Sequence to fold (185 residues):
Amino acid sequence: MEDKKIYLPELIFNGKELIGDHVEKSTRKLGDLRGIFENGTAFESMNLEQIAYHVSCTFPVQEGTSGGLFMGITYLMPGKVGDEYFMTKGHFHSNIDRAEFYWGVEGEGMLILMNEAREVWAERMYPGSLHYIPGGIAHRVANVGNSMLIFAASWPSDAGHNYETIAKHGFARRLKEVNGKPKLV
Ligand code: S6P
Ligand code: ZN
Fold:
C-alpha cells in the first residue's frame, strides 16, 4: 500500500543548481558594481551590461522571520577590472550578529572577510571548502580563477543585508593579482 506520509522534497540541490518551484533568481551586471573597484577608468571602459554574477535562492519563510534559514547559490563570472578580480558587492548582515555558512562548489575563489575593527583576511575557496562566517564579519567573494566560480550559502532568515557600510567605506584591503597571484594589499 502507498505510504501517504512519505513525500518528495520540494527542492533539489543537484550539487550545482537549486531546482524547484520556489527558487528566486537575481542578477548583478558589472554596471551594478560601480564604485567597488579601485580602477574607475578601467571599469568605465568595460562592457557594463555583462553579467557579473547570478544568485539562485530559496526563502522558505518570509525575510525577517526569526528561526528560519535561507539558502542561495552564487555563480560569479571570471574577469578582472584592472588588477582586481570580479567580486560580489559584499555586506555585513543588518542584524550584525547573524552568522552564515559558505561552501565552494566549483572553481577557484577567495572569501574576503572584515571585522568591525576593519581587520581584513581571506580564505581560499575551492570545491568542498567550507567557511563559517561568524556574526559581525563582512563578507565578499572574488573569483581568482579562469572559469565560473560557484559557491553555496546558508544564512538566518532574520539576518538581512547591510550593503551601505561596504558601499561607503569598502573593505580595508583589496584583493589584487600581483605577479599572477592573488594578494591582499
Ligand atoms: C547572503 C549571501 C549570498 C550573497 C551572494 C551575493 O547572505 O551572503 O547569497 O548574497 O553571494 O553577494 P552580495 O554581497 O551581492 O549579496
Ligand atoms: Zn551574508
User: Anything to note?
Assistant: The pocket of zinc ion (ligand 2) is lined by residues 91, 93, 100, 139, 155 (CB under 6 Å). The helical segments are 40-44, 164-169. The CA atoms of residues 34 and 165 lie 15 Å apart.
